[in-house]
Amino acid sequence: MRRPEPEQRRPRERGRPRLPLRRSLLGRLLIVSVLVASCAVAATAWLAVQTTSGAIRQEQGQDLSSDAKIYNTLLGYAATHPRWEDVEDTARELARTSQRRIVLTTEDRRPLFDSAGASSVAPLPAQASAVVDPLSVDTVLVPDAMTAGSDRIDPRAVGPFLLPANERTELRGITEKQVACLNSVGVAADVVDGPSGRPRIEFVRGDTDRDLEFKCVAQNSGATLTEKKALDELNTLADACLKRQGHKGATLNLDLSWDRGYGRITAAEKQPTEKQSAEKYPSEKYPAEKKAAAVERGDDRAIASCVGSARREQLTDHVAAPALLFIDGTGAVSVPGFDLSPSNTARIVGVTALVLALTVGVSVIAGARLVRPLHALTGAAQRMRDGLDSAPVPVGPDNEIGRLAAAFNDMAVHRARLEEQRKVMVSDVAHELRTPLSNIRGWLEAAQDGLADPDPAFVSSLLEEAVQLQHIIDDLQDLGAADVGALRLHPEPVYADELLGQVAAAYQGPAETAGVTLTVATPQSGPPGPTLYADPVRLRQAVSNLVSNAVRHTPSGGRVTLRSYRTGPGHGDEVALEVSDTGAGIPADDIPHVFDRFWRAEKSRNRSTGGSGLGLAIVLKLAEAQGGTASVVSTEGKGSVFTLRLPPAPAEAPADATAAEAGSGPDGPDPINMTL
Question: 162 with 365: CB under 8 angstroms?
Fold first, then answer.
């Protein structure tokens, strides 16, 4: 094919229109970058406005660090009153002393109290300053509020544990006697009333003499009737909770502790680890029976949780319902929004423009570096399409574009090699077809001119040339069918040794004529040869091509050996058919090309040294069409070994007589399926 002149192609190449910016990769990259930057700036601005507005609202009503007294006082009222009806006096006094507006509402925002008056129309903030709930003290918002237990129940919420006056008087008398005894022995102590009205002893110093304390406080007052009744109710609620969780009940003490078998623990304590228990209770004080008793008592965490939930259930009717607390300035009517000043607006607009400009600049630089090698690849591909020689594309760093350029260069080299092989193949096909056609034409013209007699020898010579021509056409047809997947196959179980014997018998005559010993290596004893699953006709054709090449390239006195074997599970569990010879071998540089079409090591294409160059290409295609492979191992000067590896026959499908019929007939090998 005539190569177009470069001068004829250059005007067309220069005339190609450039892609518009909106369709180019650089344009799309620029648009995406601008969109991303715009969204980022907008999101940042929105987040800044929302955060600033939230901070302002937090400063104007939600931070209770300076309002702990208001929260704590209202929390104490809720802990000691079942309803909010009488909270007005307490809340109004708090509003007067703090100069703040105090609003209490129910959780659904129904007003309970508003220090600004019932006629106030000032809207309330969207979020309350705090939730006043004695059963869930908010210690984060008011860290200096009265300390609550781990269950976050206000200790002032005692409910049914509140003692009547007569029981208080009786307990106080007992406690005062104990304090007087302590004072008489030099231990300073006072009587302090607890939230429920039960008096307790508070020591002035913590490092008092325990023996002196024991002398005066040996007899501790037990629970009163009121406390026993409330404690029984609490025990019932806690046991019901434990039962629902699959634990045994626990007997609570007056201080809400329970017996663990080796001591008492309160609901506020955490269950110690095994190591901590061993350190706190040595082996002589923590016997095995007490450990077992502790295990039988159940999980302390479950008991503590159930005690907390039981207390909330018991106190629900004795404390006020949760209320929303709003604390604001006296003259404030609402929480103002966040308005940007002109200077701040101009500053935000300027920063946004700067970010967009930087984004566009960086995108242009990065896009140009990204598009430049793509333009080079496009130009090289267009020159290759026009039939012009394309110089290798510069390969950049080891990234996606660099690897694409390297792959394109490899493709260009491979394409040039294929183009050269195509030209050589066309020339070889013409040469292979010209020789038999020239011989046939010469003999026919000689017969026409009366120079040759059409005797049997004449007809035999013409038939030989026609058969040679038919061989080439059949080989090309087989290769074409194999390329498009249209090769007809009729696979069946085939005895490998039987097929090799048939091929060897067919080529015994040519081998003896060439002085080559042709044998089939079969085991003298043991199991029969392997059975494979293939088309016997096509398989015999492939093996015949290998044997024909081996006999042709083995000098007189040499040997060609055929054998079959099972590769084993470690090598794919296949059946291998091997054709080895002691010929001249193949140079190492030529081994990668032996299965190429029309390739011959001897470039003169002399009939005495080789065939058409299609035999081994057909062998590879026939092997691949039947799920196998073809390979060669050769040492120059020592010979070559060609191996076909094919799948074995299924174990349940024994080879039948059709495998034997795949061999040669009584007249030798089929000339149509054999490459000479």
Answer: no
pLDDT at 578: 93
Q: In this predicted structure, what is the pLDDT of residue 401?
A: 73
Distance CA 531, CA 500 (A): 12
Is pTM beyond 0.90? Reply is no
Using an 8 Å Cβ cutoff, are 528 and 486 in contact? Answer: no
Would you call 50 helix, strand, or coil by DSSP?
helix
Cα 436 to Cα 438: distance, rounded to the nearest angstrom: 5
**SS3 state at 141:** coil
Both tokens assigned to 177:
């006697």
Alpha helices in 386-507 (DSSP H): 400-448, 456-483, 496-506
Beta strand 517-521 with 559-566 is parallel
pLDDT given for residue 321 in this prediction: 92
- Angle of CA points 392, 396, 399, to nearest 5°: 120
CA distance 631 to 592: 10
Strands (E), 77-175: 100-105, 111-114, 130-132
Ranges of the chain with pLDDT below 50: 1-15, 60-62, 64, 145-146, 261-264, 268-298, 331-338, 605, 652-676
Helix (H) or strand (E) holding 578: strand 575-581
Burial 81-96 (b: 16+ CB within 10 A, else e): beebeebeebbeebbe
CA trace torsion 64, 68, 71, 72 (10° rounding): 160
pLDDT for the residue 631: 92
